[in-house]
């Protein structure tokens, strides 16, 4: 039994950030009912190529959708129509958590906002994710990961410096603002569930992509707020630690992550230049940061002189943190990934055998579960309405005929 096997989540969200959170809850055992629009569904079903293919070669869902939607049941209902909204309301009465990521105020017109649902279910945890939150001058502005990476400061510290080849602000290669927001949402929901269990009280959770990205600036934010330093783009270098960056070696690239003075001394010995560790310009990290350009210029020809394999062997023998830059195929072929079970096989009605990224959560008593593959649109509409709302086949068929449901 999963840690959250007693929890029912009504998921009105789509795309990535909020579905990322609800997938985590599902992996931990929660029953997640995903509400989707008939005929269209979650936008990420169409974010391709690549797409899944059925046994007959027909195109199915985009593989993007698979990343955030396992352990969910799909109910396709048009809640823009009163009959559909009434069904969603009934499901909310029977749920512990509602998650949505519509624009501020959008769900109130259907009676699916927090105030309306909490009036009928006072114990409800209602988690809303928007781009900028429910107050402030930008509360009505839509939020997308790319915009938030820019407006939230991340792109200002990502990319090559001005004047360097390719120097321009750069987004991260995955939708990291969405993913971080999904993790913060999960934490908030779990905290609210603990409060709910103690007191029987629900609460409203107001999450914003912008807030989450600002929080995730971490040391770059405190470099400015507490240290008075405005961070800039440094490419693959670190603003506070040297040498902590990518170096070209004889046959590729090496990540060197020297985090303290002891490691720098070990690196200098492994590199055949032990005198650098006693040089006053490089004896401490603060000194190395101050003389960054001089040190890097000294190290670059030394590191180019040997192969990646040679460097990793020598540096690991001296306990100097280092590593290669793996392609994604190399990540999942890595012996460590295999030993840790970083992929999970599931059976999908369109694709047959399907390989997904496993949850990284490792709990000894209540580990993640892989009960359901990412669902087809409306795959569980009839099943959920029969089980949860005791609706008859005739009632369901009538709503399908009127376009309110898809099965």
Description of the structure:
- The protein is an alpha/beta fold and 407 residues long.
- The chain has two domains: 8-216 and 351-406, Rossmann fold (3-Layer(aba) Sandwich); 244-325, 2-Layer Sandwich (formyl-coa transferase, domain 3), CATH 3.30.1540.
- The chain is built from 16 helices and 14 strands.
- It has helices at 17-27, 63-66, 82-93, 114-120, 145-151, 176-199, 209-215, 218-225, 261-270, 285-290, 292-304, 308-317, 328-333, 335-340, 381-389, 393-401, and strands spanning 8-11, 31-36, 51-53, 59-62, 73-77, 97-100, 125-130, 203-208, 244-249, 252-257, 322-323, 343-348, 352-357, 405-406.
- The strands form four sheets. It has a seven-stranded mixed β-sheet with strand order 8-7-6-1-2-5-14, with helices on both faces. Strands 9-10-11 form a three-stranded antiparallel β-sheet.
- Helix 1 crosses helix 6 (176-199) and helix 6 (176-199) crosses helix 7.
SSE diagram, text form:
Blueprint: E1 8-11, H1 17-27, E2 31-36, E3 51-53, E4 59-62, H2 63-66, E5 73-77, H3 82-93, E6 97-100, H4 114-120, E7 125-130, H5 145-151, H6 176-199, E8 203-208, H7 209-215, H8 218-225, E9 244-249, E10 252-257, H9 261-270, H10 285-290, H11 292-304, H12 308-317, E11 322-323, H13 328-333, H14 335-340, E12 343-348, E13 352-357, H15 381-389, H16 393-401, E14 405-406
Parallel strand pairs: 1-2, 1-6, 2-5, 6-7, 7-8
Antiparallel strand pairs: 3-4, 5-14, 9-10, 10-11, 12-13
Helix pairs in contact: 1-6, 6-7
């Amino acid at each position: 039994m999963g840690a959250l096997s007693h929890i029912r989540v009504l998921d009105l969200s789509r795309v990535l950030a909020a579905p990322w959170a609800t997938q985590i809850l599902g992996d931990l055992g929660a029953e997640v009912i995903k509400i989707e629009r008939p005929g269209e569904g979650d936008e990420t079903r169409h974010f391709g190529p690549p797409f899944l293919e059925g046994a007959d070669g027909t195109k199915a869902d985009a593989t993007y959708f698979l990343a955030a939607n396992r352990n969910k049941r799909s109910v396709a209902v048009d809640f823009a129509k009163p009959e559909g909204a009434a069904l969603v309301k009934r499901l909310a009465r029977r749920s512990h958590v509602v998650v949505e990521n519509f624009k501020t105020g959008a769900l109130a017109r259907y009676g699916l906002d927090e105030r309306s649902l909490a009036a009928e279910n006072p114990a409800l945890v209602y988690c809303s994710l928007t781009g900028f939150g429910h107050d402030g001058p930008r509360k009505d502005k839509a939020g997308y990961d790319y915009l938030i990476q820019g407006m939230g400061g991340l792109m200002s510290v990502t990319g090559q410096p001005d004047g360097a080849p390719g120097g321009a602000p750069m987004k991260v290669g995955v939708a990291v603002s969405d993913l971080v927001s999904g993790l913060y949402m999960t934490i908030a929901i779990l905290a609210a569930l603990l409060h709910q269990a103690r007191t029987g009280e629900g609460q409203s959770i107001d999450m914003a992509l912008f807030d989450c990205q600002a929080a995730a600036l971490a040391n770059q934010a405190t470099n400015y707020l507490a240290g008075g330093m405005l961070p800039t783009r440094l490419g693959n270098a670190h603003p506070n630690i040297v040498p902590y960056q990518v170096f070209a070696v004889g046959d590729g690239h090496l990540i060197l992550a020297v985090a303290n003075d002891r490691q720098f001394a070990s690196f200098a010995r492994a590199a055949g230049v032990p005198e650098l560790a006693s040089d006053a310009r490089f004896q401490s990290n603060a000194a190395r940061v101050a003389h960054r350009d001089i040190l890097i210029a000294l190290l670059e020809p030394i590191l180019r002189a040997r192969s990646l394999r040679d460097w990793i062997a020598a540096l690991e023998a001296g306990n100097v943190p280092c590593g290669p830059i793996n392609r994604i195929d190399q990540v999942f072929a890595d012996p460590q990934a295999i030993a840790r079970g970083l992929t999970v096989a599931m059976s999908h009605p369109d694709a047959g055998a399907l390989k997904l990224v496993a949850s990284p959560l490792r709990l000894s008593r209540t580990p993640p579960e892989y009960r359901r593959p990412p669902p087809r649109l409306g795959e569980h509409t009839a099943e959920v309405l029969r089980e949860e709302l005791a609706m008859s086949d005739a009632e369901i068929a009538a709503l399908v005929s009127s376009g309110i449901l898809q099965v």
